[in-house]
Amino acid sequence: MPAVYVRNRLRAATVWGLEALVRRSEPAYERQAVLHVAARPWDPAPCGAANAVAHPDVGGLWFMRQAVPPAAVAAIRALVEAAVSAPRNRGVHAQVEAAGREVAALLEAASKQPAGSEAFIEAHEQAAVAMRRRDALRAAAAQLPAPPPPKRTPREWEWYEFEPGRWMAPMLAHPADGGIASLAARRRHLSNFEVFGDAPVDEWLCLASLQEGTAAGSAERRGCEWLRWLQRELPRRLPCVGAVDEPLAVFHQLQYLQRGCAISAHVDAPTPPADVVATLSLGTGLHDTVRVGSARVRLRPGDLYAIAGPARWEETHEVHPSTSDRLSLTVRFASQSELQNC
Ligand SMILES: O=C(O)CCC(=O)C(=O)O
Ligand SMILES: [Fe+2]
């Protein structure tokens, strides 16, 4: 529906414009680095399905054309469709949560400025404005009945709307194929991420439970099997995962980006632990586009890219707006010893 695309593009452009204005008044801000990163298209020559290619310049950027075939894309989509439902409109309650996240981010940014500096005062002013807005929304929400709790079970989830048009759902990897088996380690490393609405890990989707709940021979069962195949095969087929000492699949992140929405330039946080972040595109259109460092990559459904080393830690990456909705699956890999020791 073009209206959805246009609405999302306009919203993104407004946010982008406001951010640019605010940042223009920050003398120390590295404007160029965030507002515009020059990038060249990277379209590796076909090298056979599910074979990995490294980018010649961007260290740690890998690509796999057709990491999984179209039948797998269809099966994984069927699984996600069956297990994850559209987020309900939670109105002002959702706005309160978003405003709370904004306050936390602004306070964190403020704490990084030298005390007493102009940037410090300005950052605290911005945080104060956001706090007043959050409190006004809270007061409005208190007048309304509480919303029903979101559906969060190992077999069924309601997408969590992290940003407008950007929906997230977490899923535990299968322990029989290199997923984290220990309950304590799961709780220690995977609890309370804001991108998943702070859902406790015990309420995450769970690939093993999902597989048990699907009928033999169904598309959903085949979707589960393909996800297990990815957990098993990526360490063998992707050299950057193979280079990790005893790689474990930390978890699967499902993400649905509505047409016209983008994910702005960022570096993934150090937690959850991940030496390699691998993303499989299951987009519903012909292709979608991501940028990693100076490389712009077109992904067709079934293509996968991965970031490790410099591409993971030193370069930003982003997802450009697409004219069709985009489902993606991100698997993070970390070393078993790292997960046990911290
Ligand atoms: O979906 C993608 O291609 C990447 C998503 C991403 O960068 C993130 O969720 O941090
Ligand atoms: Fe990311």
TrEMBL record:
Iron as UniProt keyword: yes
Keyword Iron: yes
Superkingdom of the organism of origin: Eukaryota
Coiled-coil residue spans: none
Residue ranges of every copy of the Fe2OG dioxygenase domain listed in the record: 246-335
InterPro entries: AlkB-like_sf, Oxoglu/Fe-dep_dioxygenase_dom
GO MF annotation list: metal ion binding; oxidoreductase activity
Alphabetical keyword list: Iron, Metal-binding, Oxidoreductase
UniProt family annotation: Belongs to the iron/ascorbate-dependent oxidoreductase family.
Name the record gives this protein: Fe2OG dioxygenase domain-containing protein
Species of the source: Emiliania huxleyi (strain CCMP1516)
